[in-house]
Amino acid sequence: MKVGIIQFAPLLGDLNGTIEKLDSLIDQTGSADLVVLPELVNSGYSFVSPQQAYDLAESVDNSIYLDFIAKKACDNNNFIVTGFNEKNGDKLYSTSVLIGPDGYIGQYRKIHLFLNEKDYFSPGDKGLPVFDIGICKIGMLVCFDWIFPEVWRILALKGADIICHPSNLVLPYAQKVVPSHALVNRVFALTVNRVGTEGKLTFTGRSILSNPKGETLFEASAEKEEAAIIEIDPLIARNKSMTPRNDLFKDRIPKEYEELICYNGNKSR
Ligand code: ACM
Fold first, then answer.
1. How far is Cα 238 from Cα 160, in angstroms, rounded to an integer?
2. Most Cβ neighbours (<10 Å): which of 185, 186, 216, 245?
3. How many CB atoms lie within 10 A of CB 235?
4. Over the range 72-101, which residues count as b (16 or more CB within 10 Å of their CB) and which as e?
5. For the segment 103-116, what is each residue's pLDDT rounded down to a tens digit?
6. pLDDT the model gives residue 269
7. Would you say the CB of residue 8 lies under 6 angstroms from ligand 1?
8. What residues act catalytically?
9. What pLDDT score does 99 carry?
10. What is the reported pLDDT for 102?
């Protein structure tokens, strides 16, 4: 299976300009089976007001941007995961959408909001779905979700082979941790970050693909827009054996983890 990575800078408030840029980048990854893009591609990130965030959002079933992505997926006969500023009634979500050759497949709404995102977006309310696309099973996270190991584990337990992670990272830490999430869950982890500067924010690039051994198969530059294709065997993520006597999932002891559910970060136990 070939995985495509598109690290680039969407243009804040200029959807046509973003689509124009993306058109050739997507064509460079046309032979990949699965292509992953950054977070909030249809709007950009550094909103000056909730109204601007809302004005730049689209709904999943009425989106110029997703129509463009669906056409590309159809033309290239592949799957595309993209970050999307999603409007649903009066709420906004930082969503990751999965589109295939036949159109929309599913979505994940970012659960953990970062900094000023709390002024614009609602936390995700669609859980942590895993989608079987035939060649592999896909889970999705969005950017700041990276720091919560629980969500990576849930997706792995639900059978994800590849966790796709559209991002607009401004801190330099996630790229260090993502290979460890891949290792401890024995999955492929693919963080696709953006580059460039918007307002006071500079995004950290260095999109990264890790295999289930925590090895880095690809890392992009910090600043350049780039498209890459990497070949993987997604099915090796289904082998959770660590030693002849240790299996990552069978050795779990959930009754010992109950405090994780009960503990509310505001209170001591
Ligand atoms: C982030 O969650 N966009 C940092």
1. 9
2. 185
3. 12
4. bbeebebbbbbbbbbbeeeebbbbbbbbbe
5. 999 999 999 999 99
6. 46
7. no
8. 39, 110, 143
9. 98
10. 98
Angle at 204 (CA atoms; ends 201, 209), nearest 5 degrees: 145
- Residue-wise pLDDT for 8-53, tens only, equals 999 999 999 999 999 999 999 999 999 999 999 999 999 999 999 9
> Mind giving me the DSSP string for 206-239?
--EEE-TTS-EEEE--SS--EEEEEE--GGGGG-
Q: Which of 241, 238, 259 is nearest to 250 (CA)?
A: 241
For the Cβ of 32 lying below 6 angstroms from any atom of ligand 1, the answer is: no
How far does residue 113's CA lie from ligand 1's centre (Å)?
A: 7
189 close to 163: Cβ distance less than 8 angstroms: yes
What's the chain's Rg over C-alpha atoms?
A: 18
* DSSP H stretches of helix in the chain: 15-28, 50-55, 64-76, 117-120, 149-157, 174-185, 258-262
Tokens linked to 67: 């129509």
Residues with Cβ within 8 Å of residue 184, at least 6 apart in sequence: 149, 152, 214, 248
Q: How many Cβ atoms sit within 10 Å of the Cβ of residue 129?
A: 16
What's the CA-to-centroid distance between 194 and ligand 1, angstroms? 11
Structural domains of the chain ordered from first start:
2-238 (3.60.110.10)
Q: Is the CB of 248 under 6 A from ligand 1?
A: no
Between helix 64-76 and helix 15-28 the angle, nearest 10°, is: 10
Q: Which helix (H) or strand (E) holds 7?
A: strand 2-7
